[in-house]
Amino acid sequence: MKFKNVLIVVEDIEKSKKFYKDLFGLDVILDNEGNVILTEGLVLQDKKIWEKFLNKDIVSENNAAELYFEESNIEAFVEKLDNYQPPIQYVNRLMQHSWGQQVVRFYDLDGNLIEVGTPV
Description:
Layout: E1 6-10, H1 13-24, E2 28-31, E3 35-38, E4 42-46, H2 47-54, E5 66-70, H3 74-83, E6 89-96, E7 102-107, E8 113-117
Parallel strand pairs: 1-4, 5-8
Antiparallel strand pairs: 2-3, 3-4, 6-7, 7-8
């Protein structure tokens, strides 16, 4: 067995494609009617389709999982976050853990939690 992708639910596929391209450099591999596969294994699923599949409501900002990225030039990345429009909703601003790693946590446009840290 091989793990392939992580799927997150989004309200607006086009805005989310732009968000992940602008901030993380992810490109579209496949765009198929509300189901978009990006580079690095991230899949965007239209909220309406996901709700229909599950027959359940989607809970935004549930803080039950996060996407994790590493960035060696974290100060430049945080500057990019600070200048992004619409404004980023931070969970915590740039901080340093006791082991020396710097991290920032924030939500994407749909309340999916993201952490970006320096390589460990």
